[in-house]
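Worked Example 4.2. Consider the chain below.
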Amino acid sequence: MPSTRALLREKPSARLAFMADVDPDQIAETITALANSEGGSLVIGIDEAGNVSGLLMEEEVDGALQAALRMCRPPVHTEWTPDQINGVTIVQLRVPKSDEVHALWDGRIMVRKGATNAPLEGKDINQLMANRPAGEFELEAVAGATIDDLDDNVIDEYMERRQKRSPRSQIMPRLKLLRQIGALAEDGTPTVSGLLLFGKEPQLFMPHSRAIFVKFADTQPRGPQGAFGYGRREEFVGPLPLIIDRAWRVIWEEMDKQAVVKGLQRQEETEYPRTVVREALVNAVAHRDYRMTGRSIEIRMYTDRLEVTSPGGLPAHITLDNIVEEHYSRNPRIVNGLYQWGYIEELGLGVDRMIEDMVSTGHMPPEFEARGHRFTVILYNRKDPARVVREWEQNMNDRQIKAVAYVQQSGAITNREYRELCPHVGAETLRLDLVDLVSKGVLLKIGEKRGTRYILK
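Applying the procedure from the previous section yields the following structure tokens:
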């Protein structure tokens, strides 16, 4: 690390920034920009012209740095060195180039362009991510672990399900496959992803990789008699697939259920759509930051809601505003492992389906919270019958919606009337729209040829 005195003789550049005053926001922007670029130093206590502020205190810088680190996702590694120049305190923050992409709390991704910090957008973000070695932490060998710490039965089940998902893929020997997917290092030591996916007891090496379920008898953290506490508490350990299965079984046991009759069939309705609960659970396991120790996945069931919280917050450039459109995997090998296993049905569609399934069953859309370094999905069990969207309504295009609205108002619709509603659409396309609505059981076709009209079934 160059000395602070040596840096004072240099000018601001792509690897060197100066800051006269302590500003957590500016510190966060600069250290993420340096980490995302080639690394470098931030000198605090002197401006770009070399003027020393003379008002700096080490405690003030430390507090501002801690505040700045809380704004970065994931936190940026820094080394800081205080120095005295003519009796005045100067602090140098050294930031190495990172193997990860760091974002600010609001989703901005900064880089150094010349002597300034600049935000990236669109394809430039994708290019930055493409140039980063993805999932390096997942490939780290776990100290003290051996291949005997992996569960043969779990591996066999994974290989069987992988083959069913991709029946044309090559069948490989076990050790070769484990090395190929990054579960084993070259020397045969289990990696982080290997131990999490296939380990007998991963929590012996990573205690924080467990999940905890707590049920409260109130809308607040209270137990059955109203005192602070809980009614049921369970811990789930083992490899990630078993954690998902065990947690799901407990949630299923605790969810309210009722039998309803639709047509001639008896169906069971659950407090929350099962697809949504499983998606929230799988996402928490797949996308949490396993580098963060001291916190586990938490599942909290209250009388009015279910909360699933994963440590690590939102990854990279993902924010609450773009969470539906943008996709990014913090743990690509774990995600791919759970996909091959069948826990993830289709990559990149989880949040979309959660929203759709909640709304279509009459629930409020799920809420998402990103506070500090944790991310929470909140599902409310309140149902509004007016919110229920019938299955056929979910699959209508805009033209068909117009047609149904016309029938509701006029009692029927003919092909000619439909063409007048949609004058810029071909007659064959409109005919197929009506045929589709008949096949879905929405409309009933009456009459033949020129006398054909459609009414609500």
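The radius of gyration is 28 Å. The chain has four domains: 4-122, 137-204, 211-334+342-387, 391-456. Compare this with Example 4.1 before moving on.
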